[in-house]
Design goal:
By secondary structure, the chain is of the alpha/beta class. It has a five-stranded parallel sheet with strand order 2-1-3-6-7, with helices on both faces. Helix 2 links the parallel strand 1 and strand 2. Helix 2 packs across helix 6 and helix 7 packs antiparallel against helix 10.
């Protein structure tokens, strides 16, 4: 009777046996080969032999407990040994398979090699030949175990290295974004400093109001490019009067209407808004300029107040067609010009004795003729 296969071991026993033992599966309907192999491996505690009489039984055994070495007879009750070898080698690439044949010849050897055997033994078996075959398989098994462990270790290291690479790449992206933000901030500050220095040098010693407004408009138009621009000065009763303007593309008959409307509607809104106004959509522009000059809705608008301490000394407005938008760097220039122009206006007022020490009234009467270009 064929030797019955043992029940599959538990996971822990299976792991221990896989590392300590060499599992041998013998697929042969006869018992003679079983006894012969047992004699060859007898006394070797780290070898374990399991016998299956048929190909079906061998497949079941392999599914429950993989083997390291399989001896397959070329003739089985339920199929060809060569076909079983082909199936086992395809599904278990790390198993060593030895074909045992009682009529070994060149054709059998070629078919066995193509099926995936690592050795071919001819019956009757020689004790020394069988022992040498098992020893070769043991050596290959130990080498494969070392390589498998090394590959597993390398895979774990690769996963760690890949995770480290992803972490470093993420940190590099963050650093690059920080550097870009820092560069943009530095460029903005440099733009601000350059504009401040240039404008300050232009108006530093200017004590004539008309010349100050003229120089300011010239500087603004030079930095912005061709544009409509106007400076409004605060008057009495929270009203604004026109201090100077540049007409770029407005019709002559509509210029006075636009400037008067800006003095009455836009300027009072700007002084209540602390930040610079940069309107680029028709809806936003209409909200700032009101409904009376809606024909300007397709324009881009910049407006800002020039404040000295807590007092507004001027409001500057610029607008032009949306097909020629203002450069973002020009907004930085406006932010730089506003406090410097306010300081220059305050200095002129002090020189002309129009500064009240206790409370500098925004509504102080500043009479100035229009300055047009």
């Amino acid at each position: 009777m064929p030797h019955k296969s043992q029940p599959p071991p538990t996971g822990r026993q299976k792991a221990r046996k896989r590392s300590d033992d060499l599992h041998i599966l013998l697929v042969d309907p006869q018992d003679d080969l079983v006894r012969f192999i047992r004699q060859a491996v007898g006394g070797q505690r780290r070898l374990r032999l399991i016998h299956s009489a048929t190909a079906a039984e061998a497949r079941t055994q392999i599914a429950c407990e993989p083997a390291d070495l399989i001896f397959v007879a070329d003739r089985l009750p339920d199929g060809s040994g060569v076909e079983l070898v082909r199936q086992l080698s395809q599904g278990h690439s790390n198993v060593q398979i030895v074909m045992v044949s009682d009529h070994a010849n060149m054709d059998v050897a070629v078919a066995a090699i193509r099926a995936g055997v690592c050795d071919l033994l001819a019956l009757p078996l020689d004790q020394a030949q069988l022992s040498a075959c098992i020893q070769r398989v043991r050596s290959r098994h130990m080498r494969d175990q070392i390589l498998t462990n090394r590959i597993g270790r390398l895979r774990r290291l690769c996963r760690k290295l890949n995770q480290a690479r992803l972490d470093v790449a993420e940190q590099v992206d963050v650093l690059c974004n920080d550097l870009v933000a820092a560069y943009q901030e530095l460029a903005s500050q440099m733009q601000h400093v350059a504009a401040s220095g240039e404008f300050s040098a232009m108006v530093r010693n200017e004590l004539d109001l008309e010349q100050l407004l003229r120089r300011s408009l010239e500087f603004i138009v030079e930095k912005s490019g061709p544009t409509n621009a106007a400076i409004f000065l605060p008057g009495t009763m929270d009203e604004f009067s026109l201090g100077g303007y540049v007409n770029y593309d407005c019709a002559t008959e509509s210029t006075d209407i636009i400037l008067e409307h800006f003095a009455d509607v836009l300027a009072p809104k700007v002084i209540e808004h602390f930040d610079l106004v940069h309107a680029t959509s028709a809806e936003t522009v209409c909200r700032w300029i009101g409904d009376d000059v809606t024909f300007l809705s397709q324009s881009h608008l910049i407006a800002f107040a020039c404040r000295y301490e807590e007092d507004t000394l001027a409001v500057i407005t610029l607008f032009r067609d949306c097909s020629d938008p203002f450069d973002p760097t020009f907004v930085e220039t406006c932010d730089a010009v506003a406090p410097l122009l306010a300081a220059s206006l305050a200095r002129i007022i002090r020189v002309h004795h129009r500064y009240l020490p206790d409370s500098f009234e925004t509504g102080g009467d500043v009479d100035v003729d229009r300055i047009s270009f």
